[in-house]
Design brief:
mainly beta; 14-stranded mixed beta sheet; 1445 residues; ten-stranded mixed beta sheet; 8 domains; hydrolase activity, hydrolyzing O-glycosyl compounds
Length: 1445
């Protein structure tokens, strides 16, 4: 069986293959043992010797250590007490009913209990002599070493990969995660964790050793220069000097109120200061990272001197701090509990944030919520715009009141109620096992609405996850269970009734699954249904939950704003400013004025006004916490009072902090906690947006008593867990959502669930006016309008005990069968009138795009009469929807069409639910008065779509009528299973090279070979861990473990670069990469790579020979001695180097590599370039020197864009540096250039700069944010000398890609038999009004040029030749280089050669244009207007010598 293991860990047993010795539960006496008693040769000998020497491990009455004996709960508690020296007194061991103060472990148990490290069982016992399981040890150690406060480790989803993950107690999951991600506890070679297996004394000591490192338990000076893993100081009088601690430092409670000092030392991990008092903790000339200071009973005095630097200092208890000059604290956060803190002296605190009252700094008392900067005795308010995120440590604030939508009740961790779920630090069941609690005997009806049948009685029990319950009931084969959660009594259905539809209904429900969103006060009603195969009710029971039925949960507040200050807190909120509609045609302009946002009477007021302001008719405000409050998972609660009125749209919602992680909206996700439409003041909505294509799930809640949300304050909240959202109003659960997806249009598969809702989001509060959804205000709308917010609170569940995401069932696409005639078009002969056809589907209004017309039957066909042609092709449109297409199949579209005279129209097949993606490219047709049949074949390259549509677009082509008949769409070939995959929009042939898509994040990849069954292979779930971790069970032949991807669309005679990032656990690990096909894996190339222990990029160049139908990439991994990390695998087509020899042109779309950009629709330019996107070009410079580089660019961005060109010698082709982005610091030269707004994204201009190029190969990397780029021209600074042919693509054996047309709907060009065919369905007045042209040509002043070409025509006619320049920045002004002397050339049906020469008298132009003017020409009294085709070939524009000077 294949082992899937936790990412990033090498799985060995934590303590070897021990079989612990069983023994009697002898009474432990606490006899000191000598280090010499450590068992010689024992696998744990070193740790036993060290910790026996410290006095932490003690022996039995006979002096033996017995390391293989199972450790008891009391023994482990005593060890922890000796390590930390916890304070005694208080509750005492008598707090447990089965312990006594006089027992040997009494004082230790008392102290460890008081410290919160142990909590015991729910029945009041501790069971001190019981063995301790691995999961209970994890709980106790993680509390003692404060690992549970490390939210990063808690969010790492490492437990699901263990084969026995189901046996892990939910109470211990956060602790186990913390222990595993910190590297302290590991799994076993067979892929198990064995959470319930007891631990031996030796194993416990090894874990203790890994966490504590070095113990300083005796007063003295320790000045030896050394590097330590971790350190614990538990005695006063200890002085540490010259220590480099790579892990954590614990200044433990055992220091008491004494002194401890640290000098000239550094801590890379965290420092926990829990000891010290009226005397001092002295830290001098030392560097500390994150530091936490807290003592529950008294302040700790700290003296910081020398050049001490602390990263973040979090105070959870009071501190008396004295800072000397030169001391720097980057961030100081004073949490609840730190009241009484006094800070004095000099030094610098870059950010000081008081989250409680009673803080004094150099005599100045800070108010709660203040953020200050302290430097050299000067205390000033922080910049209101500074970005800061308040501390989010769990347990700082009180929980929300019970009943507010799954709010807490009871004590977290105590076992409760009915199923004996584990509690505290142990895994032993408590309570009345299996006995249902509460008023569970209140079922209603079930059999025809009569009395409940005694034979069907569902039983409720406590859930595994906090805030859940479970139900069990038996049903016969073929029947299923369903459970409905409600806040009111559920109406009893009759037998045979249909199952209700509700987002709070779980169907099918598996007995014993956790039911979330329940509580014992509000959402306490469970409707349990037995359902038959047709979803009809067979039995029903209602259960009313009590506290005993629901697993207690605690939500700890980590962020809040009660709006108690006089001004809006700039450390928590940002203002969004400006108008523009915000994608919804909203009418307001958001401002930061007090008129629109302020605090009054302890409430945030967001106020909308009807007033003219900066081009808008309304003003309002929008506040966000972006960068100051960003969270993944939690409870988000807002108490607010809403406005009402037509066109008013208040919202409480969340957006992702990194909006580009899963691409832009909607794929990035949106969480709408509350939205209200002002004309429905008693109804609110909770919605999730996701996609692509855009989709949403939505719930709503209407006040039941006819009141309005504007009458009083209501509490709106959402509970967000991995894979689930629960929406509440005033504690009432009204919607639950757990089915969504996310896909980037530039990727081939959906991101792995629960993306996009698996990363940080920030909060937004706004009051919009108008928009697509609410409509515009009317005369009934009163202004100003106010949204009043009482508070905003954010909670995290204690110990991050969240549910694990369960991927929703796949939604299979149903593809309907064709009609009896085999066609997927319904009513294609119009025998059923106009049924199934839609005219002007975008209405109302039907003339939205300026087109107007009507349809009717005529002569058995559909006649479209056009009154007004409109502004775009689709301004007049006839469509049929719901056409099913499957990926890879080939289809044939055919139809008859004609007009009353010559005109054009287009036909296309698109996906309206996928942003109108084109499945068949738009086909432009030339219609005449003669009925013709048109046929087009195409392959469906996209995913299956049951809702495609056929479009006939007749706009912007005159007003002549169009007849259409006999429309058919047949599938002519099924998908070819060997069909190759095309490159992704980013250019890579490797799909999911980032390991973040599909099931297990391994879509498109296969792991094969003899060693695959026993190999470890896993992709991490945390964002930073989304890479493949793979390792054979043991090293073997390289091809014994193969990671592969096939169906690669490799092209004949093309060059490719394979690139990937890798890191190995063992230095010198060797892997192999091969590119070939199924039968010959290394046909095109094979290469070995030696991978080191640091992440690096690796590349391999492949030169294709004969084209294969399906290429294959194989990584051979069988020889790996340890774990390999693999990521960012790409296989990209490489453009050959551009030769720079005199005048040269680089097409923007011919990049060798890129990130983020998209080619234009015509494929001849690059756009959609955001900050951080780039393109690379490899050039081969033949002559060193100064070059003028001219960029042909456009920008419609308000403030314009910019260009940054990085240049470095060498290229990926020569292996001089890796594939991917070149860092600016690595570049040999950097050139920058601003680009002004050109007026439109399609209005291109030339901008230029000088650069220096050395001879040889270079890589150019271009950043062009907010700029569209067509091409770059490079010309030597000295333009004298000979010139050559400047026309590109002057012969047409393959394509006409470098040529363009003007009035493209009035002519078309194509490559036919090695010539350019120009089809002219009709001729327009003025010769220049129909053109074939090429621009971007360099013409040098003073040079004589000659144009030559071959041409003939199906109709005898004249054409004109033009050479000039168009200045798009100057209203497209035309400069005629022929000075009015455009030659008129006569074409006949005989192919002839033509020639024309001219002198370039104008200044040198780098964007000249050669044009063939093909419209109507008048010669004498004759107007030549007959349509036809003409053919061009061998076009050249060559120059001679520059005239002598």
């Amino acid at each position: 069986m294949k082992k899937i293991m936790a990412a990033g860990l090498i799985f060995t047993m934590i303590c070897g293959s021990l079989t612990p010795a069983a023994g009697a539960s002898a009474v432990r006496t606490g006899v000191p043992a000598s280090a010499s008693e450590a068992k010689a040769g024992h696998w744990a000998e070193a740790a036993l010797r060290e910790w026996t020497g410290y006095g932490v491990v003690q022996g039995y009455e006979n002096g033996s250590l017995q390391p293989d004996r199972l450790i008891s709960r009391a023994e482990l508690a005593a060890m922890l007490h000796r390590v930390f020296g916890y304070d005694g007194g208080g509750a005492g061991s008598a707090a447990f009913t089965d312990t006594a103060d006089q027992a040997w472990y009494g004082p230790a148990l008392e102290a460890v209990f008081k410290a919160g490290v142990i909590t015991g069982y729910g029945d009041g016992t501790f069971k001190p002599q019981n063995p301790v399981s691995r999961q209970d040890v994890a709980v106790m150690l993680s509390r003692a070493f404060q690992l549970v406060n490390d939210s990063a480790s808690l969010k790492a989803n490492v437990l699901e990969s263990f084969e026995d993950a189901a046996s892990i107690g939910s109470y211990s999951a956060p602790a186990l995660k913390a222990m595993i991600t910190s590297g302290v506890m590991q799994g076993y070679p067979d892929g198990t964790l064995r959470p319930k297996q007891p631990l031996t004394r030796g194993e416990a000591v090894v874990l203790l050793d890994r966490l504590a490192g070095t113990l300083y338990s005796k007063a003295g000076t320790y000045d030896e220069s050394e590097t330590l893993d971790h350190a614990v100081v538990n005695k006063d009088g200890v002085i540490l000097k010259n220590k480099q601690i790579t892990g954590n430092l614990y200044l433990a409670p055992g220091i008491g109120t004494g002194d401890v000092s640290m000098e000239n030392s550094a801590v890379s991990g965290k420092t926990y200061i829990n000891g010290g008092g009226e005397h001092s903790v002295h830290i001098t000339s030392s560097t500390l990272g994150d530091t936490v200071l807290a003592h529950p009973e008294h302040p700790i005095r700290a003296v910081l001197g020398g050049k001490t630097v602390i990263g973040q200092l979090a105070l959870k208890g009071p501190m008396i701090a004295e800072l000397s000059e030169g001391t720097v604290i980057h961030s100081l956060v004073l949490h609840a509990g730190s009241s009484g803190t006094v800070i004095s002296g000099k030094g610098e605190i870059a950010s000081l944030q008081a989250e409680t009252d009673g803080i004094k700094v150099n005599g100045v008392v800070l108010a709660k919520g203040q953020k200050m900067v302290w430097s050299s005795e000067s205390l000033k308010p922080a910049n209101a715009g500074a970005s800061t995120e308040p501390g989010r440590t769990a347990g700082e604030s009180s929980s929300p009141s019970a009943g507010s939508g799954g709010s807490p009740g009871g004590n977290n961790g105590a076992p409760g109620g009915s199923n004996g779920s584990p509690g505290g630090d142990n895994g032993t069941s408590g309570g009345n096992n299996g006995t249902p609690g509460g008023n569970n005997g209140e079922p209603g009806g079930g059999n025809g609405g009569g009395e409940p049948s005694a034979e069907w009685s569902p039983v409720v029990s406590v859930g595994d996850i906090p805030g859940t319950a479970q139900v069990s009931a038996s049903v016969p084969d073929g029947h299923t269970l369903a459970v409905l959660v409600a806040h009111h009594a559920i109406e009893t259905p009759k037998a045979g009734d249909s199952l209700p539809k509700d987002s709070l209904l779980i169907h099918p429900y598996q007995p014993g699954d956790d039911i979330s969103g329940v509580d014992a006060s509000v959402n306490k009603y469970l409707g349990v249904y037995e359902v038959d195969a047709s979803k009809r009710v067979v039995h029903f029971r209602q259960i009313i939950l009590t506290e005993a039925d629901v697993k207690p949960e605690t939500w700890s507040m980590v962020w809040n704003d009660e709006f108690e200050s006089s001004e809006i807190d700039g450390t928590k909120w940002n203002y969004i400013q400006g108008g523009g509609g915000y994608g919804n045609n909203e009418l307001q302009n958001y401002t930061n004025r007090r008129e629109n946002a302020r605090i009054e009477d302890g409430k945030l007021v967001i106020e909308a006004h009807k007033e003219a302001y900066q081009g808008n008719d309304y003003t309002s405000a929008k506040l966000t916490t972006e960068g100051k409050g960003d969270w993944t998972y939690g409870k988000f609660e807002v108490r607010a009072k809403m406005p009402e009125g037509k066109g008013i749209w208040p919202a409480i919602w969340m957006m992702p902090t990194d909006q580009n992680l899963y691409s832009g909206w909607p794929a990035s996700g949106e969480i709408d906690i509350m939205e209200l439409l002002g004309h429905e003041p008693n109804k609110i909505y909770g919605t999730l947006h996701y996609g692509v294509p855009h989709d949403e799930v939505q719930g709503s809640y209407t006040l039941p008593d006819g009141s309005s949300f504007s009458d009083s304050y209501h509490t709106f909240s959402v509970e967000w867990e991995p894979g689930e959202f629960r929406f509440y109003v005033d504690g009432i659960l009204y919607a639950k959502q757990n089915d969504w997806f996310s896909q980037n249009v530039n990727e081939a598969e959906k991101y792995t669930y629960p993306a996009p809702f698996d990363r940080d989001f920030f909060m937004q509060l706004n009051l919009a006016v108008g928009g697509n959804w609410p409509g515009s205000p009317d005369s009934s709308t009163v202004f100003p309008q106010q949204m009043l917010v009482d508070y905003v609170r954010v909670y995290e569940r204690e110990m991050s005990q969240y549910r694990q995401p369960v991927e929703p069932a796949s939604h299979s696409v149903v593809i309907r069968e064709p009609g009896a005639d085999g066609s997927y078009i319904v009513n294609g002969s119009f025998e059923d009138g106009l049924n199934n056809w839609i005219f002007q589907p975008f209405g109302p209004p039907e003339d939205l795009f300026g087109g107007r017309g009507s349809v009717a039957l005529d002569q058995g066909a559909v006649l479209t009469s056009i009154e007004q042609e409109g502004d775009v092709e689709y301004a007049v449109q006839l469509v049929q929807t719901d056409i099913p297409l499957i990926k890879g199949a080939e289809y044939r579209l055919s139809f008859d069409a004609w007009s009353s005279a010559d005109r054009s129209m287009t036909a296309a097949i698109s996906g309206p639910n996928r942003n109108y993606a084109r499945y068949m490219n738009d086909q432009t047709l030339s219609l005449s008065a003669q009925r013709q049949t048109y046929t087009f074949d195409f392959v469906m390259a996209s995913d299956p779509d049951p809702d495609a549509r056929l479009e006939f677009n007749m706009g912007k082509a005159g007003v002549l009528p169009v007849w259409i008949d006999e429309v058919r769409l047949h599938k002519i070939a099924d998908p070819d299973p060997s069909l190759t995959r095309e490159a992704l929009p980013g250019g890579s042939l490797i799909y999911n090279g980032t390991f973040d898509q599909g099931k297990n994040r391994l879509a498109f990849w296969s792991l094969d070979g003899p060693a695959a069954a026993e190999a470890y292979a896993q992709v991490g779930s945390a964002i930073e861990e989304r890479k493949l971790y793979v390792k054979p069970a043991a090293p073997g032949p390289a091809d014994s473990l193969l990671l592969s991807q096939n169906q690669l669309g490799l092209k004949e005679n093309q060059m490719y670069v394979l690139s990937f990032e890798a890191k190995a656990a063992a230095e010198g690990s060797v892997i192999q990469a091969a590119i070939g096909n199924e039968s010959e894996p290394g046909l095109y190339g094979e290469q070995s790579f030696t991978v080191g222990t640091a992440k690096e990029s690796y590349t391999m160049i492949i030169n294709m020979g004969v084209k294969e139908s399906a290429g294959k990439l194989v990584f051979k991994l069988g020889a790996l001695p340890g774990l390999l990390e693999l990521d960012n695998v790409m296989l990209k087509e490489m453009a050959p180097p551009v030769i720079i020899d005199g005048f040269s042109r680089i097409e923007a779309e011919n990049y060798s590599d890129m990130r983020g950009v998209q080619k234009g629709e015509d494929g001849l330019s690059v756009g959609w370039i955001d900050p951080g996107d780039w393109m690379q070009y490899i050039v081969d410079v033949k002559q060193a020197g100064e070059y003028k580089v001219s960029y042909y660019v456009a920008s419609g961005y308000e403030t314009g864009g910019s260009l940054k060109l990085l240049m470095k010698r060498g290229s990926v082709l020569e292996h001089t540096f890796p594939a991917g982005e070149m860092a600016e610091s690595e570049a040999d030269a950097v050139y920058t250039l601003d680009v002004a707004n050109t007026g439109d994204w399609g209005r291109f201009v030339l901008v230029d700069q000088m650069i220096t190029l050395e001879e040889g190969t270079h890589t150019l990397q271009l950043y062009a944010p907010h700029v569209n780029v067509d091409y770059m021209l490079l010309a030597p600074s000295d333009l004298s000398g000979t010139t050559r042919n400047v026309v590109r693509n002057g012969t047409f054996d393959e394509n006409v890609g470098e040529w363009r047309t003007y009035q493209e709907d009035q002519l078309s060009i194509s490559s036919v038999n090695g010539e350019m065919k120009v089809h002219l369905p009709s001729l327009t007045p003025d010769a220049w009004n129909q053109q074939v042209y090429q621009d971007g040509l360099t013409l040098v002043q003073g040079v004589t040029y000659t144009v030559t070409f071959d041409a003939y025509s199906t109709v005898d006619r004249p054409i004109q030749l033009g050479v000039g320049h168009i200045d798009s920045s100057n209203n497209y002004a035309y400069t005629d280089f022929l000075a009015g002397g455009k030659p008129t050339l006569w074409l006949t049906s005989e192919k002839k050669s033509y020639q024309f020469s001219f002198v370039m008298n104008n200044p040198t132009e780098l964007n000249a244009k050669l044009e063939f003017n093909l419209g109507q020409i008048t010669v004498g009294d004759t107007v030549y207007s007959e349509a036809g085709d003409l053919f061009l070939d061998n076009i050249r524009l060559s120059g001679g010598m520059t005239p002598s000077r």
